[in-house]
Amino acid sequence: MSRNLPAPGKPKAAASKPRRKAPDLADMAQAMEWLMQRVDVERLGPTRAAQDEIKLDRMHRLMTLLGDPHRAFKSVHVAGTKGKGSTCEMTAACLEACGYTVGIYTSPHLVDVRERIRINRQLVSQSDFVRLCRTVAEADARLEPLEGDATYFELLTAMAFVHFAEQAVDIGVIEVGLGGRLDSTNVIVPEVAAVTSISLDHTQILGSTVELIAREKAGIFKPGVPAVVVNQTDSVIQVFRDVAASVGATLEVVGREIDFSVRTDPAAPGGPRSRVSVFTSRNSYEHLTVPLLGEHQAQNCGLALAILDKLSERGFKTPEAGVTRGLATVSMPGRMELLRTSPRLLLDGAHNADSIRCLMRAVSTQLHPDSMVVIFGCAADKDINGMLKELALGADKVIFTRSGNTRAADPKDLARIFTDASGKMCQIAPDLAGAIDLAKRGVRRDDLICVTGSLYLVGDAKMLLNARARSS
Predict the structure, then answer these.
(1) Cβ-count burial of 368 within 10 angstroms (0-12 exposed, 13-18 middle, 19+ buried)?
(2) Going by CATH, does the domain composed of 15-327 fall within 3.30.70.240?
(3) Count of other CB atoms within 10 angstroms of residue 124
(4) What residues does each domain of the chain span?
(5) Cα-Cα-Cα-Cα dihedral sign, residues 214, 219, 222, 223
(6) Cα–Cα distance between 102 and 171 in angstroms, integer?
């Protein structure tokens, strides 16, 4: 059922007429061409131009011009360095299984931009995507010249908020794009704010220490809004406590104030799985199976359960039976995704040292390959030394390549750094197709090929492998 949005806010007299004509977007191709003309901070990397585009004033103005759609639905807001996408997916699936209509907004996408905007995990239709793009383009054309053009991410965020408002979702689960404090999603006032694990990433923009990065992520905390975070180093938790106190938010840590435990079920179907328990004064979630592979996903699942508990305090019904059903439906493309079985081919978008370490451990403990060949490519601005150090500890063979992302590191540079640091041999493939073919020639039935280092590389792999499957 659709909801009529409030009338668009009245702009100042100087902006009563468009400063430029809004584009006439007829189809997906035209919509994407228009969007891709805008600054895309995700692809720019930590440049001065990217930093200059990270602001909130323009997003607030865009929301006003659209009638403040972000205020028309309740929401959950999730930030963090790693695990925020997984936490969002688990939270959304559980809420859907409990009977709610759930919007979910995540980034980046792997294959289709519409993956970012879903309701009950169904992609927004192409016709709706084009219509939403036209709606947002008309508002964008009314921005003041000094406000500048909205970015690619701001426009998509606005489209998601309009869509969720129009479709009258019961709740939106919103993933932060970059940082938190100045991210364009931070116009919302959620029912619950959550932060996943913090590690070094985007250091040129967010700060050079985990404490500085944590402060930026905690920028999503709001007065009177409960905040929940995963347990981590004392210095990071203290930052969270300081920010929460300064804005008037209550903060609870999963594993400290919130009773949390995890155990491994070695006899679970498909191999060992983590089971988690979260107990509060209101809810008992006991020995629930974590649906995603990797020990690190237990922490993300615990955080999702803590979010559900806080929502139950604010009027949502989240019984254990519904939550259990919801978790059983969760899957995450591009995160420990086993795409092929002969030979086994795993896709994982790990893109910092901590994520690579978790991936290597998860492969060893849960997939047990005789040998693992890693196809690796990453952005040039990432912690290359840290990632390659972890890769050397877990991979039996490494093939370096690159994605189509303009920020991608040169495979020759990656190979040189890897060999100099580890003393191990490696191979280079100029493109992903060549890397996969090279890997397949060197594996046996019980071996594993793993594509990792970048979500862009993983997305390219999915498109390539799907295209090959269709043509075979």
Answers:
(1) exposed
(2) no
(3) 23
(4) 15-327, 337-471
(5) positive
(6) 5
Question: What is the gyration radius of the CA atoms in the chain, in angstroms?
Answer: 22
Give per-residue burial for 197-221: e unless 16+ CB within 10 Å, then b.
bbbbbbbebbbeebeebbbbbbbbb
User: pLDDT tens-digit profile of 231-278?
Assistant: 999 999 999 999 999 999 999 999 999 999 999 887 777 667 899 999
Whole-model pTM: value is 0.89
* CA distances from residue 368 to 109, 340, 394, 397 in whole angstroms, order as listed: 29, 16, 12, 15
Q: Which residues pair with 461 in a beta bridge?
A: none
Residue 122 CB contacts under 8 Å (≥ 6 apart), including other chains? none
Q: Which segments of 202-352 does DSSP mark as H helices, in order? A: 203-206, 210-217, 234-247, 296-312, 320-327
Q: Which helix (H) or strand (E) holds 1?
A: none
Structure tokens at 51: 């930093």
Report the distance separating Cα 387 and Cα 101, nearest Å. Answer: 39
337-471: CATH superfamily: Mur ligase, C-terminal domain (3.90.190.20)
